[in-house]
Specification:
The protein has 67 residues and is mainly alpha-helical. The chain is 60% helix and 0% strand.
Length: 67
């Protein structure tokens, strides 16, 4: 097995990253964020805090048009 190294300029890598995320739909982006959140919660042992925060009431705001 041949191991090869590909050297990429940092700016080129950033452009590739930007183009990658621009090609994704909003649902795919949200799914990736949720996956990273779940990994963070597991790695940092925050399951208890996360579960406690889910029990709280959520605030809901409504915009009401006034005359």
């Amino acid at each position: 097995m041949n191991k090869t190294i590909k050297i990429i300029d940092r700016k080129d890598e950033e452009i590739l990253d930007i183009n990658f995320w621009r090609s994704k739909t909003a649902e795919e982006k949200l799914s990736a964020i949720q996956f990273l959140r779940e990994q963070f919660i597991q790695v940092m042992n925050k399951e208890k805090e996360y579960n406690e925060s889910r029990k709280r009431l959520r605030r809901v705001y409504r915009v009401i048009e006034q005359k």
